[in-house]
Amino acid sequence: MNDSSLHPHDRLLLPQEKLKSPIWTMGISGIVLLLISFMGFGVNRSEFYHAWLFSFLFYFGLCAGSFFWVLLHYVTNAGWDTLLRRQVENVASLFPLVSLFSLPIFFDIFSSHLLYEWTRPEIQKLKDYLEKSLYLNVPFFCLRAFIYFCFFGFVSWFFRKLSCVQDEDANPYHSLRLKRLAYPIAVVFGFLFTFFAIDWVMSLDYRWSSTVWAFYLFTGAAGASLSFWILILIMLRQRGYLQQLNEEHYHLLGKLLFAFTALWAYLAFSQYMLIWYGNIPEETYFFIRRNYDGWYYVSLLLVGGRFALPFLFLLPQSTKKNKNFLGFVALWVLFMQAVELYWIVMPMEFSRNFAVGWIELIILVGMGLVFLAGYLKKATEAYLYPIHDPRLQESIEVYN
């Protein structure tokens, strides 16, 4: 590696011993909160399972979106984000941890049948279910879930592993190998995420369908993971790490966030407009359920908060280069991603009116603490950026 790739005062590693205590504290606190949330199982089982699914989808989306950014780096042969890439590799490698969050959902699928209506014995006798029973049945659902979790967990681990190996042996062949593998894996990734979105979210109402549903969910997950990525980079930079990170990197990240904000709005509006115009009862019921009572105001919040505000704020070049402003917008988009997933999942439980209970908050925070503890542990195990990547210097000197 060229010596100019290193900043004279750069720190390459997080202090493992210093962070050991905070990692354990966050992890244990998160587990305790999740255990406390099981009290909600005795209060309202249906609300508990829906709240658990909502939180699981939020953190699964952060991992899926992060791995998308890793794949995009190699597929597009990008150089500007080489300095930043290790952090999304760390987040994506949390797939095995997030997969464990799904266990209570399987318990419901096999026992209570409160989440997915199509798992109930009385529903399985209806004609509209029988038409889809070849795909929507518990054994096949579990098999597909096993494939999703194994694939996402293995490939995210493998990409990070080779990236870290390159830190030790400085062999540029690792980058070339990952680039070659990224093309077919990106295709499989898109294919499996599509069916994951159908299985775990769209089948909450098995009568309903949307042809752009997977792309719509993916765009939200990509934008949220990009926001999480931005927040991580800003916090590391403020604490004296990643000294080469500059406003050009923020500008490029801001442009990506702006683009995915617009793409999300395009897909959301297209889905809404086509379904409403088609006026097919099985399809329009999804929006009818969310356009009345308190959910109507959440729908309006998504229009203004998930699209209009980030779009307008990120429009000027100056705001995208300002790390404080960009961090605020990223935090807001991350919050709106949680609101959107809540708007998707929770009306199946609170069909009469909008509500946020203590169960939902405790599960979301509990999973979040475990998730952050997992991220910090990953971050302390490797260099903060790929120090021997052949395109590192290009990333440091980026200008756009």
From TrEMBL:
<feature type="transmembrane region" description="Helical">
    <location>
        <begin position="325"/>
        <end position="345"/>
    </location>
</feature>
<feature type="transmembrane region" description="Helical">
    <location>
        <begin position="136"/>
        <end position="160"/>
    </location>
</feature>
<protein>
    <recommendedName>
        <fullName>Quinol:cytochrome C oxidoreductase</fullName>
    </recommendedName>
</protein>
<keyword id="KW-0472">Membrane</keyword>
<feature type="transmembrane region" description="Helical">
    <location>
        <begin position="213"/>
        <end position="236"/>
    </location>
</feature>
<feature type="transmembrane region" description="Helical">
    <location>
        <begin position="21"/>
        <end position="43"/>
    </location>
</feature>
<keyword id="KW-0812">Transmembrane</keyword>
<feature type="transmembrane region" description="Helical">
    <location>
        <begin position="357"/>
        <end position="376"/>
    </location>
</feature>
<feature type="transmembrane region" description="Helical">
    <location>
        <begin position="256"/>
        <end position="275"/>
    </location>
</feature>
<keyword id="KW-1133">Transmembrane helix</keyword>
<feature type="transmembrane region" description="Helical">
    <location>
        <begin position="49"/>
        <end position="72"/>
    </location>
</feature>
<feature type="transmembrane region" description="Helical">
    <location>
        <begin position="181"/>
        <end position="201"/>
    </location>
</feature>
<feature type="transmembrane region" description="Helical">
    <location>
        <begin position="93"/>
        <end position="116"/>
    </location>
</feature>
<feature type="transmembrane region" description="Helical">
    <location>
        <begin position="295"/>
        <end position="313"/>
    </location>
</feature>
